[in-house]
Amino acid sequence: MYMAGRSRFYSEKPYVIKSCIDQRKEIFVAKVKGYFPKSEYNNLLPLPPIFRNIEIENKEVVIGEYMYSQAQKHSLPITKKDRKLTTLVDTNGQYMVFNNYYLWLLIDLGFVITDYKAITVFEKNTAYEPFVRTMMDLRIQAILAGSTKEKFYKLIINSSYGYDTLNTEKFGKIKMLDKAGTFIAQHHPNHMGTKRISANTFAVQLKPKTATCFTSIQSGVFTLDNAKYWYLNYIYNFMYKCLDRKRFHFVLADTDSIYIAISGDPNKDCHYQFESIVTDKQFYDQHVYQYLPDPNKDIYDYKKILGFGIENE
Questions:
Q1: In this structure, are 196 and 227 located in the same domain?
Q2: Which residue, of 62, 97, 125, is where some domain finishes?
Q3: Structural domain containing residue 148
Q4: Which residues lie across from 120 on neighbouring strands?
Q5: Residue 268 phi, psi (nearest 5)
Q6: For residues 116 and 34, is the Cβ–Cβ distance under 8 A?
Q7: Residue ranges of the alpha helices (H) in 145-280?
Q8: Are residues 97 and 11 in the same domain?
Q9: Is there a domain that residue 308 lies in?
């Protein structure tokens, strides 16, 4: 799996975008619209595969009768929109950006692209791998030594891939203005939002013309989408192929973690993971330790790159 290097070309021509997606040779980010057919819903609804932040309207038909009634009961604001990380079976009528690995997986799961907006193709890059492996080795050595440096190495890895991608503060400039200044600022094309502080003081957020970044934005975009790719690849191409889907349930999901409730063997304790709900033993035995830690191996296997660690049982 490659990371994005320098940009090779950008295009808004639909036939170019479609060709790059279909050929599966280049690495890219593409902005598209699409959906999963209803015939795929039974397979997808336990954990819809499109992870994206979208604006949610706090309407009863959107958030459900119970949540809506609770919001009204406790006088919570329900008129404004909230931005939430959501799992979807379509792009919500919007253009959404996906990197090549994530988009190809969605297509393999049945995703239908209805419109093409733009694509940026990048040079392939593996320069990040030796850095990650070195930092992970140092982190494991720190864990074995009981050193607090473990947190230090973890922070280095987490912040190195594209902190600027997540740091949204630099993409919005806030000014404190009086009523007259606020009136003028709200008519500026870069106006983003206004919040009243006092009778004649307002916090006005403007979008700056430029922003300084010390890491490549594409590295952050690829890391976040690659995380979703591996996450969903594990679920759809491992769990769904060898486990009894009626006996486990996704409780909570985030970008890099998931809580799963398992209806296992009541005569065993909680440390047997999926063993009691395996339906294809041969497939399970062949692939399980590509993802999960092997109990017969050491911490290097538990912390293997692109592996899944078990935090609590």
A1: no
A2: 125
A3: 129-163+216-302
A4: 10, 29
A5: -115, 160
A6: no
A7: 149-160, 163-166, 179-185, 217-234, 240-242
A8: yes
A9: no
pTM of the model: 0.78
pLDDT in tens, 26-58: 999 999 999 999 999 999 988 899 998 888 877
pLDDT tens readout for residues 96-133: 999 999 999 999 999 999 999 999 999 998 888 888 88
Is 313 a domain residue?
no
255 vs 51, 131, 274, CA distance in Å?
A: 8, 22, 22
Query: If DSSP codes are grouped into helix, strand and coil, which group holds residue 39?
Result: helix
User: Running DSSP on this structure, what letter comes out for residue 293?
Assistant: P
Tell me the C-alpha to C-alpha distance, in Å, between residue 295 and each of 234, 273, 281, 287, 298.
Answer: 19, 12, 18, 14, 8
Q: Are residues 79 and 178 in the same domain?
A: no
Locate 61 and state its tokens.
């038909």
Residue 211 lies in a domain: no
Alpha carbon distance 100, 106 (integer Å): 10
Domain count along the chain: 3
Residue 204 bridge partners (DSSP): 175, 194
Q: Are residues 150 and 194 in the same domain?
A: no
Tell me the residue type at 290. Q
Q: Looking at the structure, do residues 94 and 53 belong to the same domain, yes or no?
A: yes
Q: Is 83 exposed, middle or buried (0-12, 13-18, 19+ CB in 10 A)?
A: exposed
Residue 168 lies in a domain: no
Kindly state the tokens that stand for 175: 């000014």
